[in-house]
Amino acid sequence: MSFARIRLFLAAILFFGWLAWLGFAVSQKGTVQIVSSAQLTAATHVVVGTVTLDSSGRADPKVQVKEVLRSLDSDKIQGTITIERVDKCVTPLVVNGSRDLAAGDYLFLLVKEGTTFRVAGLPRSPGVEAMTPERPIAYPWTDGVKAQLRKWKLLP
Question: Which band of pLDDT confidence, cut at 50, 70 and 90, is reported for residue 74?
Answer without folding.
Answer: low
